[in-house]
Amino acid sequence: EMILDTVARRLGLDPLVIRQRNYYAPGRDVTPYGQPVEQNLLPDITAQLTKSSAYAERRAAIDAFNARSPVLKKGLAFTPVKFGISFNVKHLNQAGALVHVYTDGSVLVNHGGTEMGQGLNTKVAQVVADVLGVPLASVRSTATDTQRVANTSATAASTGSDLNGRAAEDAALKIRARLADLAARLLGGAPEGVRFAAGKVTSGISSMAFDALVAKAYTERVQLWSDGFYATPGLSWDREKLQGRPFFYFAYGAAVAEVVVDTLTGENRLLRADLLHDAGASLNPAIDIGQVEGGFIQGMGWLTTEELVWHPKNGKLVTHAPSTYKIPTANDCPPDLRVALFDAANAADTVGRSKAVGEPPLLLAFAVLLAIKDAVAAAGPAGCDPHLRAPATPEAVLDAIETLAPAREPAPVRESAAP
Predict the structure, then answer these.
(1) What angle separates helix 42-52 from helix 55-68, to the nearest 10 degrees?
(2) CA distance linking residue 272 with residue 260, whole number of Å
(3) Could you give the residue numbers annotated as active site?
(4) With bands split at pLDDT 50, 70 and 90, how would you rate the model's confidence at 416?
(5) How far, in Å, CA of 39 to CA of 281, rounded?
(6) Mean pLDDT over residues 226-236, rounded?
(7) Which residues contact 260 (CB under 8 A, 6 or more apart)?
(8) CATH class of residue range 91-231
(9) Which residues contact 322 (CB under 8 A, 6 or more apart)?
(10) Whose C-alpha in 165, 295, 349, 373 is 20 to 30 A from the C-alpha of 218?
C-alpha cells in the first residue's frame, strides 16, 4: 500500500487511481502463487464506496481546508482488501459436529469451533435451525468438548463458520432426511417434497408440528441424532514451488478514512471511516457488522498506537503494560463510523453462500495510516512523499513532518487542538 501511495505521489495522481489501475482484471487475474482470482468484487465495491462516501467531494473539501489551515491538516485515503480464506496447512481445513434432536423438538449442537465472542455458536445454531425449519430459540450450542467432537482444528484463519457451520449442516441434513421419510409416510407424498419451515413439516396440503413429528419419530425408532463432517474441497499447496490453490475463495472490502493531524504535536484523530465489506450472503448481518467494526479498530491500533519498544541495553520489552502499550479505547473510535456489507452471495459453495469476516477487516485500517500520511504530505510542498513509519504515533508523525521542515513556513498562530 505504501508503494502504491508513493507511485501515485511521484506521478501527481490520486492514490485511488493507481490502485484501480492495478486491480486484477480479465487477462491478468492470476495471483503470483498461481491461483485464479474468482468473483473479483473490488471494482464494484470501489464504485459503491466512492459514491456512498462522497470520496471526490470530500477530497476537494479537504484540499480547500488544508490550503487555509497552516497547523491542522486533514488527510483522506481509500484502501482495498483482497483476503484469501482457508488454512495454508491443508489438513486443518476440516471440522466435525454432533446434533441431537430431543423428543420435545429442541435441538442440541456441539461442534469443533471455539466461541470467543465472535458469534460462532449463534451462526452454527442458525444454520441448524434453518435446515430443520425450527426457531433459533429451539437450538442450543454447547461449549466445545473433545469428548463429543474429537480432533478439532484451530478456530483461526477466519474459517470458524465456514468449517463448523458446514459440519453442523451436514449432521442436520442427515436428521432431516430421516424425518422427511417418516413425514412422507404420515402425510403422504414423496420424501423429497417434504418441507421444514416455521416449526412445521409440510407435505402437499398436509402438515404437522415439528415437535409432533419428532415425538412420533422416537416411537417409530427413527435415529434423532447424527454426526457431521466437512472438509474444504479443492485445496492444494506446494511448499517447495510456492504454487497452488491455498484458498477456497477470497473476501473483499474497502475503506475510506478521514483524519486530522496537528503538525505541531503530531497528534492525530480519525474523524470518519466508511467501510464496505464483502461477507457474501451474510448468515447474521449484525454479527458481521460488529466483526468489521472490531477488526477495523483493532487494525487502527496496530497501525497508529501499538508500538513495541525494547530497552537498548538489556533488550527487555518496555511497552509491556496498558500504561505503555496503547490499544485503542472507545475514545479513539471515530465519531462518524459507517459500516455496510456488500450485497453479493459467495460464488464458492460455502454454508449459506456466506463469507468469512474475522480477519479481513483488520486490513481495512491501512486507510487510517495512509490518511495520516496524506495529512502530513499536505504540510509540505505539492507532490512530496513523506516517510511515515508504522505505528503512526505522534513521534512518528513529527519525524515525518521534520523531513518536510525546509519546505514549511512557520505557523504564525497555533490553532485550536484537533477535535
Answers:
(1) 50
(2) 10
(3) 359
(4) very low
(5) 14
(6) 97
(7) 72, 73, 74, 75, 268, 269, 271, 375, 418, 419
(8) alpha beta
(9) none
(10) 165
Q: How many Å apart are CA 201 and CA 179, to the nearest integer?
A: 9
Q: How far apart are CA 194 and CA 175, in angstroms?
A: 13
The grid cell for 35 is 491461483
Burial 88-104 (b: 16+ CB within 10 A, else e): eeeebbbbbbbbbbeee
3-class SS of residue 76: strand
383: confidence class by pLDDT, cuts 50, 70, 90? confident
Please provide the DSSP assignment of 99-115 as one string.
EEE-TTS-EEEEES---
Record the cell numbers describing residue 349, joined without a space: 459453495
Single-letter amino acid, residue 154 = A
Quick one: fold of 2-86+245-407? Aldehyde Oxidoreductase; domain 4 (3.30.365)
- The pLDDT confidence band at residue 131, using thresholds 50, 70 and 90, is very high
Residue in the structure block whose three cell numbers are 489438513: 91
pTM exceeds 0.90, yes or no: yes
Q: What is the pLDDT of residue 228?
A: 98
Domain residue extents for the chain: 2-86+245-407, 91-231
Q: What is the mean pLDDT of the segment spanning 75-97?
A: 96
**Is the per-residue pLDDT at 117 higher than 70?**
yes
Q: Are 390 and 303 a contacting pair, CB within 8 Å?
A: yes
Cα–chain center distance at 293: 9
Torsion of CA 240, 245, 250, 254, to 10 degrees: 30
Intrachain domains 2-86+245-407 and 91-231 with the same fold: yes
Report which residue type is found at 408. Answer: R
Rounded average pLDDT over 9-16: 95
pLDDT average, residue stretch 308-332: 94
Residue 287's SS3 state is: helix
> Which residue, 107, 139, 134, is CA-closest to 123?
139
